[in-house]
């Protein structure tokens, strides 16, 4: 290409701002990085849920109606298809130099096929490995096999795969993707929102906060099962869940049976409200059930909590536990009731006695190591590197 027009980038994703979620935040950071580099960006996405705040970007956002589940999520194969099928035709007629795909793998397949038809490169943004999460659920084996084949198809045909961590990059390599086509760009949160300065939520007693997705493989029920032991030492303690997910009905039922009145479910809330609740918490709760093939994950909620200065109680093993314990971000407990309850009691006692410290150090670590703006800039550079030179 010899003209001087900007690089045209299309981002295909079922979730985008103003919809709340880690994927939305991550992709907005990517798009912001692309725009800052002079790219002409368009986003092919869905119409946000009713009641979403207004969002008026500097770039083109093409929205299409989509089926959502009872909780308002684009989650489930019928819901995915309601986005992917129209997206196929929208992308075929998109005048892009490069396309970026976000999971699920079905969207990756659509992007791979349309990119082959239009003879243009595409980039797969691997925030995680989709089929690793499926393996930790009750999904039939045949479905996992089909989805794994779809994920491998998309990953191997991408001109570049962007991974958020070395652990994810290693998982990508297991699909037969050459190392020189995988770039690790890091992950993080918006430090202008999830920072130590700002309003904190109030409560009549110490509370723990869980924000974000509630999936089976995360096993957040461990915190509810640990709460009776915490209440024995801190009778006014409670847990506040904000977010949604497939495991929420189970969590609600367990809470009502185990600790009635001590667990509150607040639904999906804007990032600024989430930060307010995190700042006021004794600790933020994060979990990954061990042995489900997902121990390589580093949940974004760790960065959000630490960015606010709040300690994390992490239940599980692997990369998430190492992230928390190795950087002074809180307590990493074994995934069992006694260990988790003991960790929750320690942070609650520290807050009650006024001996809790490390808030500035945690927030400073996130500012230096987990800024979403920085990872978005790195991802943007990798996307643009796939476009042939215009010289």
Description:
Helix content is 43%, strand content 15%. The protein has helices spanning 22-36, 77-92, 105-118, 130-135, 141-157, 166-173, 221-233, 248-258, 271-279, 300-307, 318-326, 337-353, 359-369, 372-384; strands at 8-12, 40-46, 60-64, 98-101, 122-126, 160-163, 182-184, 207-211, 238-242, 263-265, 283-287, 312-315, 330-333. With 391 residues, the protein is an alpha/beta fold. β4 (98-101), α3 and β5 (122-126) form a beta-alpha-beta unit.
Biggest sheet character? 7 strands, parallel
Total E-strand runs:
13
Low-confidence stretches: none
What Rg is obtained from the alpha carbons, in whole angstroms? 21 Å
Topology at a glance:
Blueprint: E1 8-12, H1 22-36, E2 40-46, E3 60-64, H2 77-92, E4 98-101, H3 105-118, E5 122-126, H4 130-135, H5 141-157, E6 160-163, H6 166-173, E7 182-184, E8 207-211, H7 221-233, E9 238-242, H8 248-258, E10 263-265, H9 271-279, E11 283-287, H10 300-307, E12 312-315, H11 318-326, E13 330-333, H12 337-353, H13 359-369, H14 372-384
Parallel strand pairs: 1-2, 1-4, 2-3, 4-5, 5-6, 6-7, 8-9, 8-11, 9-10, 11-12, 12-13
Helix pairs in contact: 1-14, 2-3, 3-5, 7-8, 7-12
Summarize the structure.
The protein is α/β, with parallel strands linked by helices. It contains 14 helices and 13 strands. Strands 3-2-1-4-5-6-7 form a seven-stranded parallel beta sheet, with helices on both faces. A six-stranded parallel beta sheet has the order 10-9-8-11-12-13, sandwiched between helices.
What features would you highlight for this structure?
single chain; 391 residues; alpha/beta; 6-stranded parallel sheet; globular
